[in-house]
Amino acid sequence: MSDIRHIVFDLGRVLFRWDPEIVYRRLIPDEARRRRFLDEICTGVWLLETDRGMSWKESEDRLIARYPDEAEMIRAFRPNWEEMLPGEIEESVAVVDALIAGGADVTALTNWAADTFPIAEERFPVLGRMRGITVSARVGLVKPDPSIFALHARTFGLEPEAILFFDDNPHNIEGARKSGWNAELFTEPSRMKADLARHGIEIA
Fold first, then answer.
1. pLDDT per residue over 139-150, tens digit each?
2. Quick one: which H or E segment has residue 171?
3. Among 69, 81, 91, 158, which one has the highest count of C-beta atoms within 10 angstroms of its own C-beta?
4. Are strands 163-167 and 6-9 parallel, antiparallel or unpaired?
5. Going by C-beta distance under 8 Å and a sequence separation of 6 or more, which residues neighbour residue 43?
């Protein structure tokens, strides 16, 4: 019998596809320039500011102050954001649905901006089937800060040692483990199913 009683999922690149390249392949056809833009300017570190609750306008203004020549491309990120989220990772969502159907306690913990998360809620019904979701911008904390893991566990009455958490970011996995959670790095749905089985949770 498994000691795991709570399963927590990250969302972007775990349950939903996320790829800014979709937009910027069109806006910046030159591969070298596009690579520099996404690797050095509009990066995941930059997005953490909106995930923490900063407005897009403020985050854009700060970045443009550093890279004024890229103002147009920086401003293009938010209007084209929804195109960067093309859909579900179907096999992952099927795992979540099977867990819920089997009576598992499923919640989500995500780094996500406040104004874009309602778009995801409208598009992806699986979010409404979970028991609850902690959205970073709504609480003013981001992974891998230990405070957000503690807040999620406290909010939903989860015992840390009984949690199994999936995330695609190694830093978030490390943060979860430091918080006393069991955590596995997501790479693909088949590995996630294998990790669940290794923790004593079989998917029909």
1. 999 999 999 999
2. helix 170-178
3. 158
4. parallel
5. none
What's the CA gap between 176 and 7, in Å, rounded?
A: 13
> How far does CA 134 lie from the centroid of its chain?
11
Assigned token pair, 90: 């179907």
**Would you say the pTM of this structure is higher than 0.85?**
yes
CB 178 within 8 A of CB 20: no
The per-residue pLDDT for 103 is 96
Extract the tokens encoding 118.
């309602």
pLDDT of residue 204: 73
Q: Kindly tell me if the per-residue pLDDT of 119 is higher than 80.
A: yes
By percentage, how much of the chain surpasses pLDDT 70? 100
End-to-end CA distance of the chain, in Å?
Answer: 16
pLDDT of residue 203: 87
Q: Count Cβ atoms within 10 A of the Cβ of residue 165 and give its class: 0-12 exposed, 13-18 middle, 19 or more buried.
A: buried
CA pair distance 140, 154, nearest whole angstrom: 16
Buried b (16+ CB within 10 A) or exposed e, 52-90: bbbebeebbeebbeeeeebeebbebbbeebeebbeebbe
1, pLDDT greater than 80: no
